[in-house]
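New here. Invent one.

***
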Amino acid sequence: MTVNLTEGSVAKKMMLFSLPLMAGNLLQQCYNIADTLIVGRFIGANALAAVGSAYTLMTFLTSIILGLCMGSGALFSIRYGEQDTETLKKSMAASFLLIGSITVVLNIFVFLGIDGILFFLRVPEAVYGMMREYLLIIFAGISATFLYNYFASFLRAIGESLVPLLFLAVCAVLNVILDFWFVLGFHAGVGGAALATVLSQFISGIGIALYTWFRRKEFRIQKRHLQIKKKIIIEIFQFSFLTSVQQSVMNLGILMVQGLVNSFGAGVMAAFAAAVKIDSFAYMPVQDFGNAFSTFVAQNYGAGKPKRIQEGCRKAAYLVFGFCIVISAAVWLLAKPLLSLFIEAQETEILSVGVQYLHIEGTFYIGIGILFLFYGYYRAVRKPGMSVVLTVISLGTRVVLAYLLSATALGVTGIWWSVPIGWALADIAGWLYYVKIKIVKENAQKS
């Protein structure tokens, strides 16, 4: 089902479009959590620490591809709103070639530099071997990550958010089944969990590519679309590169914090690994709503409907605020039971650290909820550089404060507090810039 975001009820259309995105990423988190839960329960705390830390690195590296696809998706949405199919196809061809090439380079980089990366992260000897094994298998499937995210971004750009969800659902269910089969049936350890993820991703990536080719024939790229002009390359590069930088900076900051967390030992690593899974799962819907909001703004920006964009901004803020209040309360109250899904009850010290993390982060989800709206808005109105600035403010603050505060009596708690402070500062900067460009536009209209 394709949703036209330039017409009809603003709130209803945004929610209708965003619900499959939310469900899709929740499913994605489910199969990421499946690795962590099964490994933590059936292999042990060191395996949990290895997979959890590997997930942080995996997220950073795949965020480069995800950012490139998201940036291209914003441009696709604008072209779709303008009803310029020919230029859209040329943009699709240029984007596919660009992101595909970067995927190959990234794959080579990971395989050649894996030991240096693990050394940089200060991975303890007890988990080093398992983490290395997990990562080498996971990144053998990075091309599948590219295929899925590229075609999912395109389909969402033209208002079709349900199909990516369906392919992701197949991937999630298959991943859980294969996790149990490889880890419990074949006793393949963390390598088995990684292999389950890779096989599932390939099925999802190839499946959505074939669907797009056979079911959306009107958007098939032909030979003439491969004659790409410099203007289109520059435009794709601006959207994709800056969004990729934004995603990469975000996850690089998290990765640097992961290295600091690792220095506190395997127990804190395990607590952090489990808590971050819950944390990501909790605010993932609002992140997806921010991406849906970005598509809404981009389509209406291309269609030349500024008043509809203003109405969308107002209603999106109300929806995010309400959701974050509810999810903050739920995570705060259920922190320990949720962590107990990953960590054995006798691991009281690990549970205590995880609960502390969730109580601090969970209280301030509204901060990251508003930040996701700013990311989506600036990406959609051709100001992706501002999304990068906000990310640098948020993550820069987080990294600096994490290292400063953890060196005081606060210890690891200082790392937890650095996160909501970073969100708050980025939100303030995003709002001030929004007010500034609004005033500039009003003055331009008067003169």
